[in-house]
Amino acid sequence: MFSKTGPCIRQGRGKRRLRVPRVSGMNVRMLVNLLGRGLLFLSLAMVPCILLSYYTRGDDLFSLVTGFLISIVSALVMLIASFGPTGELRHREGFLFVALAWTLAGFLGALPFWLSGYIPDYLDALFETVSGFTTTGATILVQIDALPRGLLLWRSLIQWLGGMGIIVLTIAILPYLRVGGMQIFKAESPGPTVDKLKPRITETAKLLWGIYVGLTCLEIILLMVGGMNGFDAVCHGFTTMATGGFSVKSAGIASYNSAYIDAVITVFMLLGGASFTLHYFSLSGNPGRYLRSQEFRWYIGLFVAGMVVIMWSTRSMYGSFAEILRYVSFQTASIMTTTGYATYDYTRWPAAAQMTLLFLMLVGGSTGSTAGGMKVMRLGILIKYAHREILRLIHPHAVVTIKWDRVPVSQEVLSSVVGFSIYYVLIFAITSLILALLGVDFLTAVSAAMASISNIGPGLASVGPFVSYADLPSLGKALLTFCMLVGRLEVYTVLVVLSPMFWRK
């Protein structure tokens, strides 16, 4: 057994055995080693962007190479410092690793944008990068077309990496994480439950990423068939499946003015917002799992209901049913899946349509998807919980069991959902209030807070689909950056690490 207080223990006749250094009972060497491995992968992810910049002779080559060198040197220093036996990864270290990995990825991933001069303020560069990794899609850029292709590819790539999670990707590539890997997967994976497809977490991560890569490649091919050039198709394929929403055009998807492209992206946004577990079972020859999944039925039901409400309220704004179906289905799918693309300025829609979008922002996609938001499953459980309380008032002695997919919901999951919802709403309210105190108007403050914590990107009013976050106060941008991380890591992961009790022995 390792001691928690000293650098080594004495065995037998003066023999000494090195052990893992610990701070507050934590395996620091393991943490540093895993962070180094994660940063190493992040560094290697910059290589395609460097090659593209070199090939196109872009003026972003120096910034990309410098960012790569800083990242890879940092990774190597961590790996060298943590060389040797690392011990086991426990539950606390899993949470801390996830929080630190995403934070470090944001700080180092921002270097190419900042060093290039295209985003001269480092806070803005950090905002843009965290927005990418968390697949939020909020941007401070106005002229996106002005960025060289190397930076545009990096901007899209960080969303694709963040889509399924850089942590899960690390698990899939580094078998070393098979020890204690489930703690990481639970901490990073979106949703109240984790549905393991295979007994080992490494195999699960590989399956999920295999599906993720396959769907991305399929979308890229379909977009190229529709007339989109290869570079644009790759970038939009990355950001669609990640439900991220970054585009290579200032006008976004609207710049292509193609009903075919709109339809393809709508379908893949919905696929990205659905559970990848269901995709796996469907590809394994069991497509009936979609209809048997209560969450999927709610997911499609909310999408269709939102479309109907918006189509009715905007019926006088379009010339034909095909036109209204095209624009409403795209915007509804984009907001509900928290992608953030836009082909129409929905801030021009009536109040009823905008309120519907605001509700869909809150809901988000399915558990086990790349989408943000509270998740459909949590909403369903909360509704069932509220209904149970009403039944208890009517029948005080009745025993009412909450079920999901015909399975009773455990008290642990129920408590987690209720607690998550309380913290979610509380953070949203506090963020909105602070933004308002900074001089931001009401609708902008509310929608920006919702769009950030739900990882959507565009909001309403001054942060609408064709407006950037550039004019917000610096403190507001810093706060929204934090909210994006909180939302992407499912609230608890960040709050646990920030809790003083977490750091006590």
What does this structure look like?
Residues 1-21 and 173-180 have low confidence and may be disordered. The protein has 22 helices and six strands. The protein has 505 residues and is mainly α. Strand 5 (403-404) and strand 6 (407-408) form a beta hairpin.
Q: What's the helix count?
A: 22
Percentage of β-strand residues? under 5%
Ranges where pLDDT stays below 50 over 5 or more residues in a row are: 1-21, 173-180
* Number of separate strands: 6
Q: What structural class is derived from the secondary structure elements?
A: mainly alpha
In this structure, how is the largest beta sheet organized?
2 strands, antiparallel
Computed over alpha carbons, the radius of gyration is 23 Å
General shape: globular
- Estimate the mean pLDDT confidence: 86
Q: Please bin the fraction of helical residues.
A: 55-70%
N-to-C CA distance: 17 Å
Structural topology:
Layout: E1 8-11, E2 15-18, E3 22-23, E4 26-27, H1 28-45, H2 47-56, H3 61-81, H4 91-109, H5 111-116, H6 122-133, H7 149-164, H8 166-173, H9 181-188, H10 201-225, H11 230-241, H12 259-273, H13 276-283, H14 289-292, H15 294-313, H16 321-336, H17 351-363, H18 376-394, E5 403-404, E6 407-408, H19 411-437, H20 442-453, H21 474-488, H22 492-498
Antiparallel strand pairs: 1-2, 3-4, 5-6
Highlighted features:
505 residues; mainly alpha; two-stranded antiparallel sheet; disordered N terminus
